[in-house]
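Appendix B. Raw example, untouched.
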Amino acid sequence: MPHALSDQRFLATRSLIVEVAAALDRAERHAAERFEPLAIDPRWQLLKAAVDRLAAGDGRAEAIQLMFSDAYDPDWRRDGGPTLAGSPNCCGQ
C-alpha cells in the first residue's frame, strides 16, 4: 500500500508540532509562575489564533503568514518607512 505521506515528512512535521507544543507549555508555565495572565497579551492571542488556524485546512500557510505580517502601506516611503516592531498589536504597540 503506497503512503500518501512519506515517513520523512511525517517525522519532520511531527517534530515541529511537538516543538510548538513545548514552547507554548513553557510560556504558560512561565506566566503562571510570575502570576502574569497570558490571555491579555496580544502576542499570545495571535499565537493561539495561528494554532487554531493550523487545524482549519487548506491555505493555512498563507493565512498564518498574513496573521504575522503588517498590512502593505503604499505610502510607506512618504512617512519615513516601516517601523520594525513586528506585527500589529505586537510588542506593546
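End of appendix B.
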